[in-house]
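Reviewer comment 2.1 asked that we show a complete input and output for one of the modelled complexes. We chose the manganese (II) ion case, as it is the one discussed in the main text.
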Amino acid sequence: MDLTEELALANRILYDRGVVDGFGHVSVRDDRDPERFLLARSIAPGLVTAADVMGFALDGTALGGDTRTPYLERFIHGSIYRLRPDVGAIVHSHSAAVIPFGIVAGVTLRPVFHMSSFLRGPVPVFEIRDAAGPDNDMLVRDEKLGDALAISLGDNPTVLMRGHGSTTVGRSLPEAVFRAVYTEVNARLQAEAMRMGEVTFLSDKEALRSSASNAGQIARAWELWSRAVSSSS
Ligand code: MN
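Response of the prediction step:
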């Protein structure tokens, strides 16, 4: 499948899985040039088709004289691709269940079950005030803020964004989508478990081993989730 088509599919899967709604976006590094990435024009993810996909330089400039309106927060993507050569795809979302973990002091998102073992928490939280000061609108609207977010992400698969959402990375679109879906599921389960009592998290060793086992299974989820959005369109 052409990378542009695969990106359009990733958009619709993330909408179907409840990770993005009218907002949020997913990008992929250009397989012909690692200094470029593909991202839809500013449109609801559930509506994206291949025709909506634009090309960008890592500084967020649209390529090829494309004058369509881009996402304001495209800097999230360019900055992470620059800092993380291992990253091939990025999901940014405002999915609800992760939000509490970015706003409650002393509570961190950590893997509670094997499907989210890639988290190997604690998951870092990006505080936009540290980069933009108190007078900010919560959005990663320039390269400076994109770079600050990328530094917060560090070597992790996911970074929470205080009062905003989260950003999740993977080597490929299927991996980034898988991780974004299960980051949201983990947040839901962890919040439920914390209400019931003391939580046993995966140990670092369990998370590491489980994550390695799951790496070979991601295609199975991608195949199912692709089918679900293809039959409904
Ligand atoms: Mn956002």
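Residues 73, 92, 94, 164-165 surround manganese (II) ion (CB under 6 Å). We note this here for comparison with the apo prediction described in Section 3.2.
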